[in-house]
Design a protein that fits this description.
Largest sheet: 10 strands, mixed
CATH topology of the largest domain: TIM Barrel
Number of strands: 12
CATH architecture of the largest domain: Alpha-Beta Barrel
CATH class of the largest domain: Alpha Beta
Helix content: 25-40%
Order of helices and strands: HHHEEEEEHEHEHEHEHHEHEHE
Strand order of the largest sheet: 1-2-3-4-7-8-9-10-11-12
Radius of gyration: 21 Å
Number of helices: 11
Bound molecules: S-adenosyl-L-homocysteine, iron/sulfur cluster
Length: 361
């Protein structure tokens, strides 16, 4: 929702000051989908708001739930016609995380990523970023009261989302957040503002393909927000091949960026590592990864997430579960804190890296 527009509208219609607070609470905390639901404001104001404003800056084109009932993906159409995707994921029962996009498409073109392959359309506005969270908040509300006004879009059971709380926000959808810093910064402020969404900083994670200046800005302005670094390859040679951004900022640049980050924040950083069969999953790769992580100098503040590759092309395959477990144990024995991250939503192309902004079902 565009708060500036709302403020202006309320001022121009000579509303008392507390109206703004009432509306903000209803929209951001209660998750109303329509101004008509805000029953503690006068009826004529509700009607005028409906004529003047929209709560969301997009419309849902399609909503699809995964078989396991633990993730739901929405394809959203922005006002200019661009499409983005956002995913609601339940890592554990009753607990929901929202994975949001920061750009329509992505210019960084990582070889394993569906978003990257589709090219770059534009940066999202701060409103478009935070509205994805509002969208899921409304969705969870509607599903728990079974009043599904967006029921038409739901391609599978309306059970999804029933009775859960939205606890975490991850910037792991489409796009590179640090290439759209101005709007991401604004969206983070809105997400942690106690008068708006009121999320704790620690409930929010920002994932980057490795832009040192972005890491620095996050540390300076939001030292409590979690940082995830999509490392994926332990040598410049392999990283250059699959992640073109590495030619601009290589592993040494990232090491320096992380050292600076630790000086400022002293907080755990999540190292994301997709496992690709015969590409980055050998013992030698593991040794290179260990060597690199140790060279950063703060091993106790690094946590590696081994991620199953969600197939986006036939050229690459995910490492099998045996190799994955072996690698995990090897890293653990070498003193690395490591977990295998479960992949949710791969059957709805709603898992990481599968967000392409197209209607595929
Ligand atoms: N651009 C940012 C954030 C969005 S991508 C970044 O790259 O970090 C979110 C995460 O999904 C990143 O860790 C990314 O590397 C990962 N990812 C991309 N394609 C994937 C795929 N096919 N399978 C699994 N993870 C993937
Ligand atoms: Fe962009 Fe991240 Fe996908 Fe790379 S992995 S293309 S940086 S969205």
């Amino acid at each position: 929702m565009n708060i500036h527009k709302l403020k202006k509208f309320l001022e121009e219609s000579n509303q008392p000051k507390f109206r703004l607070e009432q509306i903000k609470k209803a929209v951001y905390q209660d998750g109303v989908s329509d101004f008509s639901e805000i029953t503690n404001i006068p009826k004529d104001l509700r009607e005028k708001l409906r004529e003047e404003m929209n709560i969301l800056s997009f419309t849902a084109q399609n909503i699809s739930g995964a078989e396991d009932k633990r993730s739901v993906k929405a394809l959203l159409k922005l006002r200019d016609g661009n499409l983005i995707e956002t995913v609601l994921i339940s890592p554990k029962l009753g607990d929901w995380s929202v994975c949001i996009s920061s750009q329509a498409g992505c210019p960084l073109g990582c070889a394993f990523c569906a978003t990257g392959r589709g090219g770059f359309k534009r940066n999202l506005t701060a409103e478009e970023i935070t509205d994805q969270v509002l969208f899921w908040k409304q969705y969870l509300n509607k599903n728990s009261s079974v009043a599904l006004s967006c029921h038409d879009y739901v391609t599978s059971s309306p059970e999804y989302g029933r009775g859960g709380k939205l606890n975490n926000i991850v910037f792991m959808g489409m796009g590179e957040p640090f290439l759209n810093w101005e709007n991401v910064e604004q969206s983070l402020k809105t997400l942690i503002d106690p008068e708006l969404f009121g999320f704790g900083s620690r409930a929010i994670s920002v994932s980057t393909a490795g832009l040192p200046e972005g890491i620095e800005k996050l540390a300076a302005e939001f030292p409590q927000i979690n940082l995830a670094l999509s490392l994926h390859f332990p040598t410049d040679e392999s990283r250059n091949e699959f992640m073109p951004i590495n030619k601009k900022y290589n592993l040494e640049d990232l090491r320096n960026a992380l050292r600076k980050y630790f000086l400022k924040c002293n907080r755990k950083v999540f190292i994301e590592y997709i496992l690709l069969e015969n590409i980055n999953d050998s013992r030698e790769d593991a040794d290179n990864l260990i060597k690199y992580l140790k060279s950063i100098g703060k091993l106790q503040l690094l946590h590696v997430n081994l991620i199953r590759y969600n197939a986006t092309s036939d050229e690459m395959k995910s490492s099998d579960s045996g190799v994955t477990r072996e690698l995990k144990d090897y890293l653990s024995r070498s003193g690395i804190s490591v977990t295998i991250r479960k992949s949710l939503g791969s059957d709805i192309q709603g898992a990481c890296g599968q967000l392409a902004g197209t209607r595929r079902r």
